[in-house]
Write a structure and sequence with these properties.
single chain; 8 helices; Rossmann fold; 43% helix; 7-stranded mixed beta sheet
Length: 189
């Protein structure tokens, strides 16, 4: 069940939904699903690859904040992460979200070895999805959830990722029929 967001957050999310196509944001249905997953699982640490204007980050951030957790988000374009930061501040989640500017692969390569997450959400360069998975895998705790958006809408571009996670012995994977398609995997060991 989704918590009732304050009026500022609700207005911000509605305004961001109007620019969904310009900023490649996830659907509200997918955002609600991810939000609920984080809350219901009690996750307290997360990483997002692809901040854009902060739409998904607000949803994820609200869930992590409810669980007294924190998250990191990675964005290459300065204009986008500046917009996202302003949206995080408006929605009261800037205190628990760290924006990591730069190319996602480079940022992920330099994550501290001991940094662990219970949740990962990827919505960035589709052709690099398999690389993001390879780099996040060592940081995802057993029992954690790994998600990737656009696996149906961009199937050809993410096929190497789908093959890799589906065959990986440490994951139970499925594709959920949410708008654009959501890869959903639990790390079992």
């Amino acid at each position: 069940m989704i918590e009732k967001f304050d009026a500022v957050t609700q207005d911000t999310l509605l305004n961001l939904e109007k620019t969904q196509r310009n900023f490649w944001n996830i659907s509200r249905q997918t955002a609600e699903f991810l939000h609920n997953t984080i809350i219901n699982e009690g996750f307290i640490s997360g990483i997002e690859v692809g901040t854009s204007n902060g739409y998904s980050g607000v949803w994820l951030g609200k869930a992590f904040k409810s669980n007294n957790g924190k998250m990191r988000t990675i964005e290459f374009y300065e204009k986008r992460y500046s917009i996202a930061q302003a949206n995080f501040e408006k929605c009261g989640v800037a205190d628990i979200i760290t924006i990591c500017p730069g190319e996602a692969i480079k940022v992920l390569e330099y994550l501290p070895e001991d940094l662990k997450f219970d949740f990962a959400f990827v919505d960035a360069n589709k052709r690099e999805s398999v690389d993001y998975f390879r780099l996040i895998h060592p940081h995802l705790k057993p029992g954690g959830i790994y998600t990737c958006d656009n696996v149906l809408s961009h199937k050809e571009k993410v096929q190497t990722y789908i093959d890799a996670i589906s065959r990986h012995p440490d994951y139970i994977h499925t594709v959920l029929d949410l708008p654009a398609g959501l890869s959903y995997a639990r790390k079992i060991r």
